[in-house]
């Protein structure tokens, strides 16, 4: 099935550092979403983006919906140990979500 | 926020047997429920979409006779893996949609021996 490409595939950072990850697609999406998945759990919604160019924050998280509607980025500022997990972007046009390949984040104290 | 539960959380079964996984929306009515499969270190792949009272819509490459989906009410959908084989071992995640967004269950780890 279709997947969105995320980069980087994995990141190893020190606590307190800022993190940036992005997601690209060959298709246009009307909505972009960012999820976090902890090991053995389902994904949890972090941020939803509905308009091209939109920049939205949720605490230490900031995400932007690309102007072309084919990409998005997620920034995490001042990382903490509980930020560890896998971050997925997802594109949506109808009810269906198309998930990205994921970025695995490891935070060292 | 809205809560989606899955049962069981993990199950081990023998090759050739069938396994049923339940997905419930606990505090809202879900017009649509989705079933995803996630292999280790991979992304979530949509298997099927189900609406209450109607037949599920399966994604390309997903065998509808193998993965039986029943969406009996606005709060319950079940996925039955029939004649399971070791290659069906995976993490199965459901989600339920209300007016605003999709809420994901905690997943069911299926191991077929």
Describe this structure in a few short sentences:
The complex is a heterodimer of chains A (109) and B (113). Chain A is mainly beta and 109 residues long. Chain A contains no helices and eleven strands.
Any overview of this molecule?
- The complex is a heterodimer of chains A (109) and B (113).
- Helices cover 0% and strands 54% of the residues of chain A.
- With 109 residues, chain A is mostly beta strands.
- In chain A, β7 (61-65) and β8 form a beta hairpin.
- Chain A is globular, with a radius of gyration of 13 Å.
- The model of chain A has no long low-confidence stretch (mean pLDDT 95).
- Chain B is 0% helix and 53% strand.
- Chain B is mainly beta.
- In chain B, strands 2, 4, 5, 6, 9, 10 and 11 form a 7-stranded mixed sheet that branches.
- In chain B, β5 (45-51) and β6 form a beta hairpin.
- The model of chain B has no long low-confidence stretch (mean pLDDT 94).
- Chain B is globular and about 40 Å long.
- The interface between A and B is medium-sized, with 19 and 24 residues.
Throw out a few tags for this protein:
heterodimer; A: about 110 residues; mainly beta; six-stranded mixed beta sheet; five-stranded antiparallel beta sheet; about 55% strand; B: about 110 residues; globular
Q: What gross morphology of chain B would you assign?
A: globular
User: What sequence of helices (H) and strands (E) makes up the elements of chain A?
Assistant: EEEEEEEEEEE
Low-confidence stretches of chain B: none
The chain-level structural class of chain A is mainly beta
Mean pLDDT of chain B: 94
Gross morphology of chain A is globular
- How far is the N terminus from the C terminus of chain A? 38 Å
Rounded to an integer in angstroms, the radius of gyration calculated over CA atoms of chain B is 13 Å
Largest sheet of chain A: 6 strands, mixed
Taking Cα atoms only, what radius of gyration of chain A do you get, to the nearest Å? 13 Å
SSE series of chain B: EEEEEEEEEEE
Outline the low-pLDDT stretches of chain A.
none
* Strand segment count of chain A: 11
Looking at how many chains there are and whether they match, the oligomeric state comes to heterodimer
Number of helices of chain B: 0
Give the DSSP E fraction of chain B (strand runs of 2 or more residues).
over 45%
User: What's the β-strand tally of chain B?
Assistant: 11
The chain-level structural class of chain B is mainly beta
Helix content of chain B: under 10%
Amount of helix of chain A = under 10%
């Amino acid at each position: 099935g279709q997947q969105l490409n995320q980069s980087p595939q994995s990141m190893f950072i020190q606590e307190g550092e800022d993190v940036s990850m992005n997601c690209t697609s060959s298709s246009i999406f009307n909505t972009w979403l960012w999820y976090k998945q902890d090991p053995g759990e389902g994904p949890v919604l972090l941020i939803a983006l509905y308009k091209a160019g939109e920049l939205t924050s949720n605490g230490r998280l900031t995400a932007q919906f690309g102007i072309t509607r084919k990409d998005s980025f997620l920034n995490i500022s001042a990382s903490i140990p509980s930020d560890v997990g896998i971050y997925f972007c997802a594109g949506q046009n109808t009810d269906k979500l198309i998930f990205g390949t994921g970025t695995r984040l490891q935070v060292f104290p | 926020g809205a809560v989606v539960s899955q049962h069981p959380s993990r199950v081990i079964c023998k090759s050739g047997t069938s396994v049923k996984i339940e997905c419930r929306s606990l505090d809202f009515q879900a017009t649509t429920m989705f079933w995803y499969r996630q292999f280790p270190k991979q992304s979530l792949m949509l298997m099927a979409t189900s609406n209450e009272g109607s037949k599920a819509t399966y994604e390309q490459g997903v065998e509808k006779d193998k993965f039986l989906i029943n969406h009996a009410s606005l709060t319950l959908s079940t996925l039955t893996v029939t004649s399971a084989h070791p290659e069906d071992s995976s993490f199965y995640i459901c989600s339920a949609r209300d007016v605003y967004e999709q809420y994901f269950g905690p997943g069911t780890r299926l191991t077929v021996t």
